[in-house]
Amino acid sequence: MSTADVQTRHTAEDLLTMPDAVSYELVDGELLERNMGAVSSWVAAQLIELLNAHVRQQRAGWVLSTDGSYQCFGDDQDRVRKPDVSFICRGRLPDEALPQGHVQLAPDLAVEVVSPNDRYLEVQAKVAEYLAAGVRLVWVIDPDNRTVIVRALGADQPMELHDGDELTGSDVLPEFRCPVAGLFQSPVE
Questions:
Q1: Which of 131, 150, 163, 171 could cross-link with 181 by S-S, CB 3.0 to 4.6 Å?
Q2: Tens digits of per-residue pLDDT, 162-189?
Q3: Residue 150 CA to its chain's centroid (Å)
Q4: Chain mean position to CA 16
Q5: Burial class, 152, CB count within 10 angstroms (exposed 0-12 / middle 13-18 / buried 19+)
């Protein structure tokens, strides 16, 4: 075996000290590059803006962007995921303070915004990981199809929302509502 065949195994702590760590997740000690396209990044920013306005008004908790990292996958300490958007309910963090490093508990809401380079099976696997870790609500937003797939912990079937539908926060953010079409509406229209 050549030295080129040997892969470096990384830890969650390594991810915290890397200069370009925002671009990576960690799965089984391997770095997985995260590349968001311009459209998916913009959609995530729109959602963050909407969620932040609601969460601040309700004093409901914390909204994190794509660099918020979670190390909450049971005994798998070599797994760190970074949803494109996430939310943690008030009262779940010790002393209501975010940690300096990875969050050690599952968010209440995890959002993945599909990018051009995302593979369907990889996104589905990530959604399954979130639900297995105890994430109560997962939204998969697809800008190309202008849809949102809603997965709730314990629900048998996902729900697919389209342009004419309304996205709600369910029991995670009970009063949050926004039209699905609003997530994709260009500011220059």
A1: 163
A2: 999 999 999 999 999 999 999 998 877 6
A3: 13
A4: 18
A5: middle
Exposed e or buried b per residue across 155-169, where buried means at least 16 C-beta atoms within 10 angstroms of its C-beta: eeeeeebeeeeebbb
Q: Give yes or no for a contact between 15 and 26, defined as CB atoms under 8 angstroms apart.
A: yes
Give kind and range of the element (H or E) at residue 87: strand 85-89
Task: Encode pLDDT of 126-149 as tens digits.
Answer: 999 999 999 999 999 999 999 999
Cα angle, residue 134 at apex, residues 54 and 24 outer, rounded to 5°: 80
> Nearest 5 degrees, angle CA 101-CA 92-CA 102?
15
**Residue 123, number of CB atoms within 10 A of its CB:** 17
Helix (H/G/I), strand (E/B), else coil: 113: strand
| CA neighbor of 116 nearest in space, from 143, 147, 151 | 143
State the sign of the Cα–Cα–Cα–Cα dihedral 22, 24, 25, 28: negative
Which residues of the chain have a pLDDT value below 50?
Answer: 1-5
| Coil/strand/helix, residue 181 | helix
Q: How far apart are CA 187 and CA 183, in angstroms?
A: 11
Work out whether strand 61-64 and strand 30-33 pair parallel, antiparallel, or are unpaired.
Answer: unpaired
d(CA 180, CA 172): 18
Alpha carbon of residue 89 to chain centroid: 15
Q: What is the dihedral of CA 42, 172, 155, 151, to 10 degrees?
A: 10
